[in-house]
Design a protein that fits this description.
With 506 residues, the protein is an alpha/beta fold. The protein is built from 18 helices and 17 strands. A hairpin with a 2-residue loop joins strand 16 (441-444) and strand 17.
Length: 506
Amino acid sequence: MFRLAAAIVPHRTTVKSELSDLLTQRMNGPQRHRLLHGFPLAGALPRVSPDTEIALPDLSQGTRRPLLIGVLPHPFCNPRVAACGFCTFPHEAFRSDRISQVSAAVCREITARANAEPELSGREVTGLYFGGGTANLTPPDDFRRLCRLLNATFDLTQAEITLEGIPAMFLTRQQALLNILQNDVSTPRVRFSMGIQTFDDARLRTMGRQAFGNTQTFADVTAAAHARGWTASADLLFNLPDQTLPQMQHDVQQAIDIGLDQICLYHLVMFRGLGTPWSKDETLLAGLPDNHSAADNWLVLREQMLDAGFVQTSLTNFERREVHHSSQRFIYEERGFQPENYEMLGFGPCGISFQANEDFSAGVKTVNPDNSADYVAAIEHPGRIWDRYFAYESSDLKIFALTRWLAALNISVTNYEQTFGNQLGSDFAPELDLLIEQRLITVEGTNIRPTPRGMFYADSMAGLLAQRRLQQLRISSRAARQSREVDAKIDSDELDDLNGNGHGFM
């Protein structure tokens, strides 16, 4: 039983058989990476039309938390295979005639938000992330305009700025985007985040990424970052169809050898019915490992990273030890996993924003339209831009925070009690008992950490932690529909799978 629960709660909570069955079911299903949303996942957020009246909680009281900003200049990308075969993030085929229009709309959104909330002017930003379809496909003039506007609107002097993109595009156009980051924003702290995925040329062709770069390109981008005193990060996939463990290890070793400061390891999310091009190919599906084998591969690769001198900082991210213990350590993800301490502003298509009140008892998450046409149309008309939202009550914020903290590899019992005024052992004892029993988490003093195997099954753990709250929301939703309440908090047939594996991205 959960030892902390036994110490805190005067009675022992019985682990219900349905929770055990649910965990088994989830562990046998797809294991996704819920890094962007936590609870609930993107696909579960209700969509609303611009004219729908919505009563949101008042979050205006109290001191503002430090600020993180995510900017998606456009949703376009240009692989030769749709979605690179596997990508589940919202994106659109590259259109040069539309990219400047969308980037200009992003500037208008930033200006409108700053005008509507004067307290944003000059506000210090701790992390700024340029992501999206492929952020470094943005034309230099548009990117310069965007950077200058952000620099004039916010205080970026202490911000970590990340530019995400196609490896080869960091080096084209005489490194124009790099020069803009160096000359048009106030911070010297910049990093690149590139999607390498694999070093295997044949697999890159299968992904349609042969024009995105090869091993030499990846090394050159890393060197270009270091030449400017910046850092470089890259994503790698493993558990690809028919990929052997030695091939996975070879990919990881090449990433280590080219000098990357951060390496992010993602097992491939793919299953029949997902909707990606690869998930419709029976041959590729047949080449996937089962979850037990996939988890075993993860354990080997994780040890390889640790043995090479890297520090694991989240479920997927590893930093070189010397970087992790320096002023250049990566902070955007780390602080993004602390919703009780940081606010999030998202600009652009699919931009995500999150705010909570001072005592963290209520909050709101909003998501902008993910389609470029819908996004531009929303910018051009008065009123709200976002078209999806979730209004958090205290019970929802507990799950959101636990999911975030789990991704950061540590749930502090003390922090939970200080944040929510409740005892973690009282609120989640049956779930935690079960996870300990299954050796997915371990208790170390007043900290709860995922075991190495538990890290692979973090998606299943998050679903388990959310299950009882989902049952409450399901009952509430049905009652709201029966009473014809048009502004019900959750009113969707997707509720039965809220925070599940069947939709959303990653």
